[in-house]
Amino acid sequence: MEKTPMAMRKHVAIFGDTNVGKSTLFNKLLGQEAAIVSDVSGTTTDPVTKAMELIPYGPIALIDTAGLGDKSVLGEQREAKTLEIIKRTDLILYVQDVSCENVLNPRPIDKNIPTIFVFTKCDLANAKMLNSASAKYPDSVLIFDYNEKSMDSLRNKMVEELTKQERDDETLIGKLLPKDSSLVLVCPIDSEAPKGRLIQPQVQLIRDCLDHNMKAYVTNEITLADALEDLKRVDLVVTDSQAFKTVDKIVPKEIKLTSFSMLLAYQKGNFRQLLDGASAIDKLSADSKVLVLEGCTHNTSHEDIGKVKIPALIKNYLGGETPEYEFYTGYNLPGSFSDYDLIIQCGMCMVNKKEVVSRLKEAEEASVPVTNYGIALAKLNGILDRACEIFAEED
């Protein structure tokens, strides 16, 4: 993992009407020409996301969006895509041309998301315009020809607002175990494992152990028994959820056991909501409809966890009954969650915390139970209580 993954970065999105200078601002913040800039209204057609370092805060994801109020043929579709970005946005930069007539009456975005109002083209405005904008939005940032002084003011304001928020790179394990703890990480090598590298949750946990002065020992399910014999003390075994059944038989009952996916559920969302959601598996039938959400896109194999393994285990658990399944990947979601009896999502290692929280809230408002792969697999293998033991003190 050469750089901080997008999912662990705060997402800062630039919103505003068409042709107010959003893409120019995006490029200036990045320090590169990443977005096309022109005087033609509606030049930006799709959201563009780039990783950047915001000094002294740290890594963030910066998003340029298509303009609001686009009157072109595809304007409505572009605006819909823009508004989807809200679900993953931690901080809004609302950009307005200070000379526009509606400058003091911006379109509502989301009052629950911290917002910095940014007024562009201030070098072309008169004193009355500038005073009016500053009076209504005293914490706003005025941009004069995108000069360094203006851009530094904006960067400082972004750092100030982001520092107030909980960080998305919050620990996976640091709140669950003390320093000097010993962990064994079980990383199976099957057809789903990427050749020559570990997957992101595995790498993330290894780094988290190093950050919290813990010892991490890496093995697979074949050499796990020997590894446990070699070690004098093991405080926790963390496995890929797909290997739960095998690993549970190998690890002595006095040693705590959980999965990478369950640690992600604890870090990124409402763990209690996901845990309670697993009980909905008991109520499934052939008439039920289950939504399966994958955070990333990949080729499906005969060992695919979401499309093959979990449905097979649920069928066995229900005595042969097979619910109807629908599958969505990435940020592509159905129009409503209310049509489903259960939502099962992956660990969401490729999706930022704000998006995960937004989805959980939407499911809760629709009264639809939701769980994740790790919790579901622990339940289906009859070891949910054991897999949750490490979280008991934090619950």
Secondary-structure-derived class: alpha/beta
Number-wise, the strands total: 14
Label the overall shape: globular
Report the total helices. Answer: 13
The N- to C-terminal Cα distance equals 30 Å
Overall pLDDT metric: 89
Strand percentage: 15-25%
| Rg computed from alpha carbons, rounded to a whole number of angstroms | 24 Å
What characteristics describe this protein?
globular; single chain; alpha/beta; 13 helices; six-stranded mixed β-sheet; 395 residues; 18% strand
Brief rundown of the structure:
The chain is of the alpha/beta class. It has helices at 22-30, 75-84, 127-136, 148-163, 200-211, 224-230, 244-250, 260-268, 271-277, 305-317, 353-365, 373-380, 384-388, and strands at residues 10-16, 48-54, 58-64, 91-97, 115-120, 141-142, 182-186, 215-219, 236-239, 256-259, 289-294, 324-329, 342-345, 370-372. It contains 13 helices and 14 strands.
Explain the overall architecture:
With 395 residues, the protein is α/β, with parallel strands linked by helices. 32% of the residues lie in helices and 18% in strands. The protein has 13 helices and 14 strands. A six-stranded mixed β-sheet has the order 2-3-1-4-5-6, with helices on both faces. It has a four-stranded parallel β-sheet with strand order 8-7-9-10, sandwiched between helices. A four-stranded parallel β-sheet has the order 12-11-13-14, sandwiched between helices. β9 (236-239), α7 (244-250) and β10 (256-259) form a beta-alpha-beta unit. It is globular.
